[in-house]
Amino acid sequence: MPVNDSYLDPKDRAYAPAKTEVVMVRRQVSIDYKKTYGGISPYINGIMGGTRARLLFTFCENAEGHDFGKVLRFQVPRTDCPECYGRTEWAALPGETRFFIDTLSTAVELAGISFKDRLPVTVAWVRAHLPDTEFTELDTLVAGMVDSDDYKKRKRGDELRPVFRDDPIANFSDVMWVLAGTPRKAFPEGYVASKHYPV
Ligand SMILES: [Zn+2]
């Protein structure tokens, strides 16, 4: 694993919290490895579709084997049911599925490497409801980055739509979320709407 150290400029603000004199280095580490998405690969394949992208979920119909006797639905998908341990089945979320912010937090200064060039960024747990008569809610939430011109206005219950990276990189960030009704010109750069999920 290549490691490259260099003396850190004494004016760097990383020194500020230190109560005693310290020496700091900038350490750059390069890691190159092959990662597999394993059983959730169909989900990644789905969000890599750009203008034809699909959001896949899994479900388990073994209702008798579940704590509350009902079918369970998972997004991000689970390949094995956490209640009856059976293998789940795959399906695509219909285009009329509705998505809402359930909880949210905003990174203003610090963030993971995958979106540090997009700060501030809001990460929300997104709740999905199927377009059936019961407005069935999926049994898991999916975490997603919400693009917003003013993150301070975002709140629980805001309705979201997915947008997809036009040139996908096989990463969970190939899907982002915008407020329902966001015009195309206000999409995050490099993202497009899927024909299956109008914004
Ligand atoms: Zn099950």
Automatic annotation (TrEMBL):
Q: Which domain of life is it from?
A: Bacteria
Name of protein: Bacteriophage T4 Gp32 single-stranded DNA-binding domain-containing protein
What is the native source organism of this protein? Nitrospina watsonii
